[in-house]
Please model this.
Amino acid sequence: MRYLVYGLLLVGLFLQNTFAQVIKPISWESSILEENLEVGDTATLSFRAEIDDNWYLYSSDFDPDLGPIVTEFEFEEDKSYDLLDSLVAVDPSKGYDEIFEGDYTYFKGKGEFQQKIIIKEIPFLVKASNNYQVCSEINGKCITFDEEFTFGEKTKPAVGSTKAEEKEKTSTDKSETEGKKKLIDLQQKDSNSPYSLLGFMVVAFLAGLAALLTPCVFPMIPMTVTFFTGKAKTRSGAIRQAVIYGLSIIVIYVVAGTIIAVINGPEFANWLSTHWVPNVFFFLVFFIFALSFLGLFEINLPSSFVNKVDAKADKGGLGGVFFMAFTLVLVSFSCTGPIVGSILVESAGGMVIKPLLGMFAFSLAFAIPFTLFAIFPEWLNSLPKSGGWLNSVKVVLGFLELALGLKFLSIADQVYHWGILDRDIYLVLWIVIFAMLGLYLLGKLRLPGDSPIEKLSVGRLMLSLVTFSFVLYMIPGLFGAPLKALSGYLPPMSSHDFDLPTLIRENSGGSGAISAEDQLCEEPKYGDMLHFPHGIKGYFDYEQALACAKEQNKPIFVDFTGHGCVNCREMEARVWSDPKVLNRLKNDYVMLALYVDEKTELPESEWYTSEYDGKVKKSIGKQNADFQITRFNNNAQPYYVLLDTDGELLVEPIAYERSISKFVDFLDEGKEKFEAKNKP
Model:
């Protein structure tokens, strides 16, 4: 249940992206402006565009390397005419794109391009085509189109003929359009929002509540309690500080998130949640806080800063409160990044208002509970003094900080394949940490600041029972037990050195079973560093999987995943492990896992510039993430797509889905659609 709300967010985005039926937002008309043309005359070819409301068309007169697709025209060579000068965009508007950092020109409502030619023969024939991009102001998504045009005269115009007759004789052809009712293909569709801005804010608000339950946000609660304990002498002072704290969280998220949306989009959120620099930094922050809670030292800000904060005590200590809010946002963003990224993907075309409102709603939900916890320390201080009980609370929280901080180091370790914190090592550390916590609760360990325990309270006894039960639960994991309750927090099973279930499965030699090698057409690229769970065999390269699907005549199961994706590991442990699901994945599909955070750089010959953001994609992860965004208009993980042997969608993709029956139905529907398409 802890990710139910996150699931609602993904469902909302999924509905937005999957069921959107949109019209073609532009139509073209072409004509020749001059009449009664003779050999040697100059003619002006006019291309006029009618653009729907809330859409705009990029013009032709700006740097084509900037990023957006410039409107370009091509003319077939013909002996009956010559081009004169270059194409002219008639009075376009000008703007500055902060994403691509450059000036561009565009049309709204109506647009016109003109090309002059010199007539060399009568009759003459001009065939032209264009390629262009139109973008939505509502959601920032862009779509590319192309058109064809024909101009020509069969006979020389008669003197005195009417303008209407001459237009008919010059065969002014409108470009072929699919009409206002055409549906955009699912792989190239625009995602007009099916819900209002208010609805979008509600979804973002629910996402903020869900973010509180992630492993790098929840441990920040004790930091908040510790920071505000004793900071205010009165209830009004505590409330004032708490409100400032909550507002600081909102301001930081809205400002930082909007800047990221406009400048970098969801790619930066992915960097922050997967790159080794922020993750190792966050691990060190948790480790230092844990040592402080355990009593090794007290965390003190520089004296000069403390003096300034103290000087502002009567005003609420804004510096210290803002610093604590900033720390919360910075550390928690590693886990909230994928959720925030789903909001920021709305800004792909440079939108500001919608991601700003989304970030406000997200941070509001995020700030409210922390604001209440900021008020809570006064209530703690008002309780009767009971010796070192408050220090015991800090020590317990210190153990938790120490354990949960390992998650950040684990993410960096998985992404960069360091091999220093495999699943078994991770489990050993957790078993030792929580065993020591249990001993501490029983009074067998004493740390600085603790009072002697003369009698063991019932509360400490019950907590120790829970702690030791948790330790016993983890021990089978050392031998390969899946530990489904911890699947989102632990490294993947593929990093486990002694995986007993896998050893039994590989050496069982059951008759009639399909061997792992028979499931593959060739050795998977990157198979030495990327793996599937539960003995599944598959590929990590799209082209390789597509070739195998054609050879075996099977559909493709595409898993957009990541090393640092908590929900991906949980889906693999809770849903994929079910025999009904696992059997279908192994036998009915060619499996393809595309890691969006894999840092391995590809050879320069495989680099390309993305049509989505104009940036060169050099690594496996960046290319996979770009493929997911440009092809399926989604950047959240996990994301599951079923394709046929031509790479076409079979059914609507799904995201985080804990229901095994629904996941089985999804797989069965894809197989049925594939078999129906391939009937002789």
